[in-house]
Amino acid sequence: MHARAGIIATSLIGLVLTGALAGCSGSANAGATAADGSKAKELVFATPPGTDDPEEQSIMESLSSMVGEATGQPVKNLQPADYLGVVEAVRNGSVDVAVLSQFSAALAYKTESVDPLLVWGASTEPAAFCLARKDGDVQSPADLKGHQVAFVDPGSTTGYFMPKSFFKKAGLTDGTDYKSIFAGSHDSAVLALANGSVDVACTARQLYPTFLEKGILKESDITIIGKTDPIPVGISVVVRKDLDAETRDALKAKLPALMLGDEKISKTLGLKGEPAVDPEFSTYTPLVDVAESIGVNLQDLR
User: Fold this and answer.
1) What domain range includes position 196?
2) How much is the pTM?
């Protein structure tokens, strides 16, 4: 999940969470008890899909444990197959607490699917890199016409919204100047580039070094043809709309310090400084503006 918040994002329409709940891992703090000595109710916590990197999966387990530590409740960790699947899971009550990518959070808030509790501030770094092969025909955005791009998923901040906005600013329209596919994950997008299935792949800036380290990409073979704008909002922690006030208050009071105190989680999620608490929708307006600039109405993505 090196792609979170300087990432975090992936899928779309018609997500009824079919099979998503099959992704549950074990419970954190399984022996927790309530204040009266009874067994505490289990919370379901979800994070967006990431990579298959064991280190990233370990970070997500740590984050799940922090939710349990903050609330004093046992926690079941869930990772649906796509980003908007997380939104749907919170909306339909299958998930109590979730970390959402930037556009997923904006969508969920606009459609009144969740209550955001915490949102971190914007990054100053490029959100995403768009990559091409050095031996290919595309060496700059101007060369993209007539070629194919691999995006990650329709709900991905770094793998779709920000890169597509970058190309739009360069005067390029998806479906007219270039063709695109959704690879389904950041790994799959860069693999499609590596094996020659597409001419360009866009992925989170934080993930690029990881792909080089893992040998998925070779730096000598790759050209970065574009770096997107920074994401104007950081990641969000959200809850289902009918979650009890005691759990909400515990999360707001204790979770930020736990997350900021873990170097790996802070780096992975791009956390800097204290988050805003109970943010107004105006916080997400810059994301809505980016979506509208590429012809996407967040209200339609559900």
Assistant:
1) 128-227
2) 0.75
